[in-house]
Write a structure and sequence with these properties.
Keywords: Hydrolase, Signal, TPR repeat. By secondary structure, the chain is α/β, with parallel strands linked by helices. It folds into two domains: 239 residues, Alpha/Beta hydrolase fold, catalytic domain (Rossmann fold, 3-Layer(aba) Sandwich); 104 residues, Serine Threonine Protein Phosphatase 5, Tetratricopeptide repeat, CATH 1.25.40. Helix content is 49%, strand content 15%. The chain is built from 15 helices and ten strands.
């Protein structure tokens, strides 16, 4: 092989090596998670709590609905990821949410409201010795945990309780004892046995005595004994008021322990079944149509719900790209009203006014955007150009 051929062969290897060296490793995004202890006076013990916050929590002033997870250590990771996935711009199936996981100390004690030694029809003094702590555990949640979360985080007045297996017993008990604490309840393969079947028996009179009860129920079961779930579903069919929205799913290909992932996915989509607007649809919504959509959601969930920044920005640009400039401006105005701290909302408004030819208003909005984000270099360039044109 000649020297020339050797050099020719080495050049591609050199280029490949150079490109490899120049490539930068993309880091894995860090989850916005926190952990803290609550020294419970009710339970007379410290309780560990894990919290997952939306990705942009620290850069907005928005408030978020909250999902509380019993058996928190078993469900926190996948539910947090699922919430982020379903609430992302591409999916837009649910709102961004705060996830609160309650870690276990003694789940048999905490999840059973009634002291009973019966397990599967037999006395089990070892397994069931500490039953009957559910009343105190509910007091801990409603009097200590929820107030702490509401005080220290920007929560919207809408809570969801997710409960699996024995925690499902506690979830049903919580609804009977304090119906308004959690507006939606997710019961996944609830396990109710022994003396605590009294909670199941109480469900029928509870429903009959609460004919104005609102909220949502989602019940699921795997390929397992369905006696408990059948009873809950029957009582909902026969006695639930029309103001209750509920759904039931059986997953034949899942067992008692694997049923939770599909259940959470379907439950969240059920609770927020009216939320979805396809961000990739060619349909162009007006400001009034957008407001009507969120007004309906506000009525449904009982608090004011506003369009997210990215969603409104996207809808505004759909109008702008179609040369519906005034329609775009109305949406951008709505975005600024909802998210006055957003530099990008003002940047978009500045672009719309620039296209419309209203240079003064364009300058005003770009200046506001840059004041909120001094690193908006593209905005600085546009602003400089606008000012130079304005001085001619």
């Amino acid at each position: 092989m000649t020297l020339t051929k050797k050099i020719c062969c080495l050049i591609p290897l050199f280029i490949l090596s150079f490109q490899f060296v120049q490539a930068q490793l993309e880091t894995i995004p860090v989850n916005n998670d926190k952990a803290f202890l609550i020294n419970s006076k009710v339970l007379n013990e410290p309780r560990s709590i894990w919290i997952h916050l939306p990705f942009d929590y620290n850069s907005t002033n928005d408030s978020y609905p909250v999902i509380y997870l019993l058996d928190g250590e078993g469900h926190f990771k996948y539910v947090s990821e699922l919430v982020d996935y379903l609430s992302s711009y591409d999916r837009n199936r649910i709102p961004e949410m705060i996830v609160v996981a309650i870690l276990n100390v003694d789940r048999t004690r905490d999840f059973t409201p009634i002291h009973s030694l019966l397990f599967n029809g037999k006395v089990d003094s070892l397994r069931m010795a500490n039953t009957g702590g559910g009343t105190k555990f509910l007091q801990f949640i409603q009097n200590e945990l929820v107030p702490h979360v509401d005080k220290n985080f920007r929560t919207a007045p809408y809570r969801i309780l997710a409960a699996h297996s024995l925690a499902g017993l506690f979830g049903l008990y919580t609804k009977e004892m304090n119906p308004d604490l959690f507006k939606s309840t997710i019961l996944m393969s609830p396990a109710i046995y022994g003396g605590n079947t009294e909670i199941l028996d109480n469900f029928k009179p509870f429903l009959k005595n609460h004919q104005n009860l609102s909220g949502k129920f989602f019940i699921s079961i795997g390929n397992e004994n369905t006696q408990t779930v059948d009873s809950i579903v029957y009582q909902l069919k026969m006695f639930a008021p029309k103001t209750i929205d509920w759904d039931f799913k059986k997953y034949e290909d899942e067992n008692h322990f694997s049923v939770t992932y599909k259940s959470m996915f379907d439950a969240l989509k059920f609770i927020y079944k009216d939320w979805f607007i396809d961000n990739y649809s060619a349909a162009k919504l007006t400001s009034k149509e957008i407001q009507l959509h969120f007004d309906k959601l506000s009525d449904e969930f009982g608090y004011t719900i506003k369009g997210g920044e990215d969603f409104l920005n996207s809808q505004g640009y759909k109008q702008l790209r179609s040369n519906n400039i005034d329609a775009a401006i109305e949406i951008f105005k709505q975005n600024i009203k909802n998210h006055p701290e957003s530099w990008n909302a003002y940047d978009s408004m500045g672009e719309a006014y620039m296209i419309k030819g209203e240079r003064h208003l364009a300058i005003e909005n770009y200046e506001k955007s840059i004041s909120l984000n001094p690193n908006n270099d593209d905005g600085k360039k546009v602003l400089e150009k606008l000012k130079s044109e304005n001085n001619r």
